Amino acid sequence: MSDAPVFNSSTSDSSTSDSPAKVFAYITHQNRLLVFSHPDCSAAGIQVPAGTVEPGETLQAAILREAYEETGLLKLKLIGYLGSCTYDMSPWGGPASQQRHFFHLEWEPVEREGEPIHSWQHYETSGGKRYPILFELFWVALPEDVPKLIAGHDQMLSKLLLHQYQ
Fold it and tell me: Which of 18, 32, 94, 134 lies most in the core, judged by the most C-beta atoms within 10 Å?
């Protein structure tokens, strides 16, 4: 098994009936990246917001929906598409070939909100499709404080950093 991703630059949904496409959000604010943990399941590791593209949904709509559902943040702006790759999720009970699409989003607080708090808890509900899952979200400085992300969530971090510092 290799962690090496296979890249392409398409933004179309290339999911199959066996493995729906996944979208991943690198949400930034003032040179910080938003990550989260599952306080009730430490084995889930540190992650970025991500989720499944629903049937008939565009990748862009999916990433904005998933980012909001998992963070509760309003005012998320889609900055760009970073690319796609496949990843072997079989060690975690998933498909051997999961198609992933990575996006850069920025959060800009509305004026009255001011600066973001460093960390907060949010219940992800998947739009009422399952029981709420508690997330502990927190900002980390780019690039020096980004922790090891689980299950290939870091596959496009290098592209994000190139995008951030151009």
Answer: 32
Beta strand pairing status for 50-52 and 133-141?
Answer: unpaired
Greatest alpha-carbon pair distance for the chain in Å reads 49
Domain boundaries, the chain: 22-164
Nearest by Cα to 25 from 63, 59, 72: 63
Residues 6+ apart with CB under 8 A from 84: 7, 8, 9, 10, 14, 99, 100, 101, 102
Residue 147 three-state SS: coil
String of DSSP letters for 103-135: EEEEE---GGG-SPPSEEEEEE-GGGTS--EEE
CA-to-CA distance for 26 and 123, rounded, in angstroms?
A: 19
Q: What is the mean pLDDT of residues 79-84?
A: 97
pTM: 0.85
Task: Return the CATH superfamily for domain 22-164.
Answer: Nucleoside Triphosphate Pyrophosphohydrolase (3.90.79.10)
Could you tell me where the DSSP H helices lie in the chain?
59-71, 157-164
